[in-house]
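Reminder to self: keep the SMILES exactly as supplied, no canonicalising. Ligand is NAP.
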Amino acid sequence: MRIDLDGRRVLVTGSAQGIGLAIARALAECGAAVVVNGRSEETSQRAAADVREHVPGADVLGVAADLATDDGTAAVLDAVPHVDVLVNNLGIFSSADPLAIDDATWRRYFEVNVLAGVRLTRAYLPGMIERGWGRVQFVGSDSAVVIPAEMIHYGVMKTALLGVSRGFAKAAAGTGVTVNSVLAGPTHTGGVEAFARELVGDDLPWDEAQRVFMREHRPQSLLQRLIEPEEIAHLVAYLASPLASATTGAAVRVDGGYIDSIVP
Ligand SMILES: NC(=O)c1ccc[n+]([C@@H]2O[C@H](COP(=O)([O-])OP(=O)(O)OC[C@H]3O[C@@H](n4cnc5c(N)ncnc54)[C@H](OP(=O)(O)O)[C@@H]3O)[C@@H](O)[C@H]2O)c1
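Structure tokens returned for the bound complex:
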């Protein structure tokens, strides 16, 4: 099998670093023309340069836009009127005492983690349907199913995305366009490494530190190490490809077995 995205235009939201950047690299490797995005010109252009360096000759565009706003969304739609693959990767997270999360924070999480992806899907899906081919993905999380006690505002938004994804898949039924969620598990991004170091300390080499972190703080993971961003990107690349034509309306896991379920 060969994942061939030659001639496809892809937008990966919130892709200036972390999982989004790994996805952008992977899709560029498969031949796609890739649009990366962060809030600032500097981070967006740095990400674009990173993808170009990783995949020489790749067609890459960096678009700076805050996708939690109407203006930011309009800027992206202006710069990129059509895409064949939309990867709604953008998502923010933080820990908080559930009883202390105020309305403004709940609204902010809804705007960034749910509505940003809904708006772009609403804008791009009709063109995909008209052209008879397209892929929409939502980067979800184990937290959608295993709501973390210290991040319920995050987990609930990821639960909502499962409904959003399934709903849009129904809207695209029978059109050649697929819509899916990718449930990522605990992943080795800068933010998660810093969080693990906070809990485990700086003394151990990283490999050992992450194993202690997993054993003590993420015991339900069957992988017992953090997932590398590229491992998430591999699944996203497959789902973005023509090979995944019969997978739609699904929540596909790349969670290291974190969700304790025999159902995919
Ligand atoms: N890390 C994990 O362990 C993990 C596990 C499961 C699921 N996930 C999910 O995977 C996705 C990516 O997570 P990550 O950890 O890779 O994220 P990250 O490292 O925190 O990166 C977030 C990215 O989003 C951009 N960004 C933030 N707010 C934005 C906005 N309003 N508009 C546009 N861009 C914005 C940031 O760039 P700027 O600062 O330049 O704006 C940055 O590039 C999220 O949906 C997350 O929930 C992560």
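Points to follow up:
The mean pLDDT is 97.
The chain is about 45% helix and 15% strand.
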